[in-house]
Amino acid sequence: MDELEFKTQEQVMNDIRSELESAGYNVTDWEPGSRNRTRWEIVSRVARGLWWMLEQVLQLFFISSQKMAGMYLEWRVSERGITRKPGAKSKGLVRLSRSTPSPIFITVPKGTEFITTDRKVKVVTLEEAFIPIGGTFVDVQVEASEVGRIGDLSDGVELKEAGISIAGLETITVFGGLSGGVDRETDEELRARYLEEIRNPDRGGAPSDYEKWAKQVNGVHLARCLPLARGPGTVDVLIAMETGLPTQELINEVAAYIQERRPVGADVRIISPSPVVINVAGTIYLAEGFDFAAVHAATAEAIRDYIQTLGIGGTIRPTHIGKVILSVEGVRDYELSEPAENHYLASDEMATVGTITFVQGSEN
């Protein structure tokens, strides 16, 4: 079917006049404001509105249409019992400290807010914390204020108070890193999951069923089923988050979810892939006018993103890493010393990012 043409009111009016003249009517009273034209303008507005509504209905009927988005997409997929994954907030510890023993009893109320120095990420304390007289620090559980991976912070990231100042605190830093942030499922991800559901209906416990069930849990990005992994009647399901290896909390959640859906008698185990640390090292040759520290940081981030997309199993190829390096603005050329050769992962292994170290190459 050809794409519908959405006509303007003037086009509709011209069509009406053409039809009238084709039917033998001598249309002479067609000037703006005339009685005849006014009547047909009313008719054309109604016709145009109905045409627009018809186009919307057709666009919203097909799941592949880009207009099938937002709440309309959520309504459609709900017919299959599918809901959009809401994402999750990053969690971890923040260390509140001072350089000398505290002369006062410092109280940090639950709900206290801190923010990164670039003001992009705000965290809130999940419990009340204290630094006693003579104490120098306290570690407190915090949660990012927004859903998504943006809340994942590295160990040592500096924070500052976002609200009321607490007397006695000198430094506020992330302790051990904040992790577990999951982005809210996008329209395209939700659409793909719906299509996977209708194209691959349940088959009584086939490997694809376990993978599909696992990916229905919020936070699961990848899943791989290993049937008969521990003998007859056993099933191992490997899962991973978008940022890498799953948390124990997510493993437990997936196990409970699949337990309700597995065939009777199936011995199912949800496990994390075996991590394989990939270190990257080499030399970067800069294009003219670029700062090495900035380019190094951008290159490291690009390599991390690439390694995280490899998933479970697969191959680590130095040539692919090289393409990633060359895609970074400011890189003129490179030499890669590590990894030096292809690294083939087993079916239960997953690449994780180790050290990423580059030196600046000579201009000569």
Summary of the model, kept short:
The protein has 364 residues and is of the alpha+beta class.
Task: List the defining traits of the structure above.
364 residues; alpha+beta; six-stranded antiparallel beta barrel; 8 helices; 16 strands; extended
What this model shows, in words?
By secondary structure, the chain is an alpha+beta fold. The chain contains eight helices and 16 strands. Helix content is 30%, strand content 27%. The strands form five sheets. A six-stranded antiparallel β-barrel has the order 1-6-4-3-7-8. A three-stranded mixed sheet has the order 9-10-11, with helices on one face. β3 and β4 form a beta hairpin. The longest helix has 27 residues, at 35-61.
Relative strand content: 25-35%
Work out the helix count: 8
Major β-sheet strand ordering? 1-6-4-3-7-8
State the order of secondary-structure elements, H for helix, E for strand.
HHHEEEEEEEEHHEEHEEHEHEEE
**Radius of gyration, whole Å:** 30 Å
How many DSSP-defined strands?
A: 16
Alpha-carbon distance between the two ends: 61 Å
Give the overall shape. extended
Portion of residues within helices:
25-40%
Question: Helices and strands: which structural class?
Answer: alpha+beta
Overall average residue pLDDT: 89
Low-confidence sequence ranges: none
> The biggest beta sheet, please?
6 strands, antiparallel, barrel
List the helices and strands and how they pair.
Blueprint: H1 9-22, H2 35-61, H3 70-77, E1 91-97, E2 106-108, E3 113-116, E4 122-125, E5 129-131, E6 137-144, E7 158-161, E8 171-179, H4 187-199, H5 207-215, E9 222-227, E10 234-240, H6 248-259, E11 267-271, E12 274-286, H7 292-308, E13 315-316, H8 318-326, E14 331-338, E15 343-344, E16 349-360
Parallel strand pairs: 10-11, 12-16
Antiparallel strand pairs: 1-6, 1-8, 2-5, 3-4, 3-7, 4-6, 7-8, 9-10, 12-14, 13-15
